[in-house]
Hints:
3 copies of one chain form a homotrimer. By secondary structure, chain A is α/β, with parallel strands linked by helices.
Amino acid sequence: LTASRSFRLGELAERVQGQLEGDAALEIDGIAALADAGPRELSFYAHEKYAPLLPQTRAGALLTHEKLGVAIAQVLVQDPVVSINELLDLFHPRAPAATAGIDRQARVDETATIGRDVSIQAFACVGPEASVGARTTIGAGAYLGRGVRVGEDSILGPNVVILDGSILGSRVILHAGAVVGADGFGYARRDGRFIRMRHVGTVVIEDDVEIGANATIDRATLGRTVIRRGVKLDNQVHIGHNVEVGEDTVMAAQCGVSGSTVVGRRVMMGGQVGLVDHLVVGDEAKLVAQSGVIGDVAPGAIVSGYPARAHREVLRAQAELRTLARLRARVSALERKLSGLADEV
Amino acid sequence: LTASRSFRLGELAERVQGQLEGDAALEIDGIAALADAGPRELSFYAHEKYAPLLPQTRAGALLTHEKLGVAIAQVLVQDPVVSINELLDLFHPRAPAATAGIDRQARVDETATIGRDVSIQAFACVGPEASVGARTTIGAGAYLGRGVRVGEDSILGPNVVILDGSILGSRVILHAGAVVGADGFGYARRDGRFIRMRHVGTVVIEDDVEIGANATIDRATLGRTVIRRGVKLDNQVHIGHNVEVGEDTVMAAQCGVSGSTVVGRRVMMGGQVGLVDHLVVGDEAKLVAQSGVIGDVAPGAIVSGYPARAHREVLRAQAELRTLARLRARVSALERKLSGLADEV
Amino acid sequence: LTASRSFRLGELAERVQGQLEGDAALEIDGIAALADAGPRELSFYAHEKYAPLLPQTRAGALLTHEKLGVAIAQVLVQDPVVSINELLDLFHPRAPAATAGIDRQARVDETATIGRDVSIQAFACVGPEASVGARTTIGAGAYLGRGVRVGEDSILGPNVVILDGSILGSRVILHAGAVVGADGFGYARRDGRFIRMRHVGTVVIEDDVEIGANATIDRATLGRTVIRRGVKLDNQVHIGHNVEVGEDTVMAAQCGVSGSTVVGRRVMMGGQVGLVDHLVVGDEAKLVAQSGVIGDVAPGAIVSGYPARAHREVLRAQAELRTLARLRARVSALERKLSGLADEV
Lengths: 345, 345, 345
């Protein structure tokens, strides 16, 4: 890396194993979106929504999947988004996440186990018998309760709360304000009032999971709430007690999963999807944004609407509804004709 | 209680006044869910969804409402969930919530009144003229503003925020990250811009209320936002300014209630329900998950959908919609026949 | 202002340039809602929902737009809500937001720039190279990352988190628990797993913006997420990466806007509205509560439902659906008649 963080286009194309169509000597100072990029910046084209921006962009060069009909230097790659992401590391080297060490104003219980090169920031609390793996960062004001275990290379943002006994893997990212391990919403009813269920279970979050800001993951009543390896949950997602979320499943913002529901692997949910309790969602199902799911979902199914059913059916039903006025007109015509016929007969 | 926390099944049956069908001398070491329990553990059967697990469970004994056809010792009780909850106290004695005392790194204003055996944890703030009742816990990083009053035996989780003048009763539980008393969302419009309304009202939360993690309860413009005795609000619920929620009402996760709406007693809301402002929801109404409520709801009514109306009607309308294709086919058949008839005539 | 905070009604009417109908000498001690006001209090009438309360109110005087048929002193003004808001300042003078100064238990990096009369409360963190404008308040436990800039006269509530590089204008209000600048939800997929996108962009929040408790505003992948002047976002709103929200737009609680969507000026959204990514919503559009928006919205359009379309059409479709049973009956009648006719022929 040069001090000025400037690269020749040829170097960049090589770095992403792309096919260069244009001047290899072009100097590139940075990466920017199509609308913002200037003549010394590299941009990328990855979504047809951006086609109208192509004739106007001032970008010096473009990463793209297929040759575009514009007079701009281009680097052809398989997936422009993946390649741009790789090049961002050149222009914006990953900062050391935080200065290692325990801040003098952090509170770490003397019975806690702290790994090598851990960063614990100001006003963070690490409780009794907790353990924090090597190179993990505990943000300012974050709280780890009694017996919490966090693996290596994980990042807990400011004001994250992890309650007693929760177990987090390695390379886990929790964004600011997320809460893991609060008691689930479970009551028994007696004489019209609610008796609070004890929640003696825990939460297990496996490796490579990312959880968004102000999301909430409740602890199990008995046993465990489990978020499997590679799951990505966006901001303000809610996961109820005893839920299990399968590997590499993603949920967009503000989804809510009720107690004891089991979500399979590689499931994709749009934003604001809700699932009632005790369901099973099969692997690789797709739940369209705002779906309200009240029954099991088969593996690979695509569902939408409330109550969620096959997305194709939902679209067809909506189309039919739009033809209802025409159907009514046909019935009126039939009535008139029939009345005429009856007169004739 | 024995040191090993092991009990004979006969003891456990007696404790919950259950009818024992099996070996009273069986040693039980713990409580677990059907899928997880081993031969020295007690499990329970309380939901037909779990019937498929019965033939495979390795549980040593089961709490159940009716005798099950499996060769496992059983304890028959009226409500297995209630009974399991009672027995959890044996195996998992309630820990003293927190060490009593004010942490040396907490900030308690000298004009605040602190009751007996209160626990105020590290980095918590208790503002001027606030008062905290006996045996209440204020979690790490929690904030109590000026004049806030909290009753006895209440638990405020880590990073909870209670703003100036809010009043909380006894045995209130606020989970981590909940915010009580932020200004409501009220503006007057003048020349296309918004003038912020002063919010000089307050929030009153009565006894035995539980509020979930990252939930928000706004203060009133004038007067009070009121959460009555026994209300249970799940994670990420939002309650707007000047709302009143009646006794023993429950709202599942991510419900939102807009300003000045009055919700009756023993109302039950599924997750992600939304209510617009200035409504009245009658006692014991049921609002199905994801309902969008834009009009008053009668006492005892069951509503669903957007805009929410009688759940029975919604189901009927959906069934009718599915028969639309058939209706269209009947109309086409009529048209053909009529055309044939006309030819004959 | 008198010490007792009591005013003659004539004084109050003058203050809001209202037309007094009643006794100018009437002593008024406070302001209260219709249902709560007593004979020495001023109330207001601004919403027909409150008409049933008029005959019973004990208020000493009323602010109203048009003369009401009740025997109570009245002050006629153009907008009673605006006028009440002005008078609240008399009875509840705005407190000095907080004592100016940096709390001895706050953490302010030595490279941060702190303006005049700033208040930084206990356990707040202000990071390296951050700057805080004059008279701004940083609440207890709040966090400002590296290089964050906040303008003048802004208020950041307790436990607010502003991550590295975010830029906030003047007179900005962020309520407790809001998170600004967390990484957006962007991944590239490779071999069924997700590669995390670098988020090297930032968030810009312009002047006079208000953001609710526990809301989340994500940083851009490249470039900026922008919240323009005068925008008001209610509690638990989520704004994705690279979104732009136009001037004076308001969103009620729990709305979610997905990545790269552009929302125009003076747009109004009810609660729990969701928008997918890469949309354009035109100026002054109205999105009814719980709308699920999956396509662009024209300027001034009113949309509702899922998928959101013209609100008028949605209402018509719902009305048609209710007539379906009748249509079916008409078809059955036709079938019977036709069968009779066929017999005759």
